[in-house]
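Listing S7. Sequence submitted for prediction.
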Amino acid sequence: MSSRMRGAFAALLALSVIGATRPALRPVADQLKLAGESKLWFDGKSTVRDWSCKATAIEAAIDASGATAVADVLKGQKAVKSATLTFPTDKLDCANGTMNGHMLKALNATKHPTITFALSSYELTAATPTKGTLQGTLTINGVAKPITLPADFAAGTAGNLRVTGSYALKMTEWQVAPPKLMLGTLKVNEMITVNYDLQLQP
């Protein structure tokens, strides 16, 4: 056998040994996606009128444990492994240009362009609808704080998992100064109510 053939044979043998001993790749977790009808909005009050703003864009990364994740959650089983929701601040809309501008300024949107919620743990109670609490970290204006969100879980359209709930949030706890308009005659209350109606697609 020539030296060239011996070299080629040795290389093939080495590759076969490496392939046999290489650990199998771990399967990628199944993903749940947000359906287009998902909604998140927050309501507030001021000295002049009530107001409401909505998130016109929501980004989500949700890992689940199998194709039956939706059915499993509705049975009270913890089939979701991790979840992170991101809301671009410049995609929040209060249906009023002046209000939008003051809101973006209060949120320091240029420096902190996103609001995020990262799920750390959750609890489920089998019922109709399935109820639970979501524990995680909410980051607004660059300030991260732990929160616990109440949530109801129900069957949505087209086999989706529908997650609904609301949460009373104090803006100043995230160092967000409530806007003041019209030389201070309009003052926004520091308490707002965050509402969510999310549809997760398998």
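Caption to Listing S7: primary sequence and predicted structure tokens for the chain studied. The first helix runs from residue 3 to 21. Residues 164 and 197 are 4 Å apart (CA to CA).
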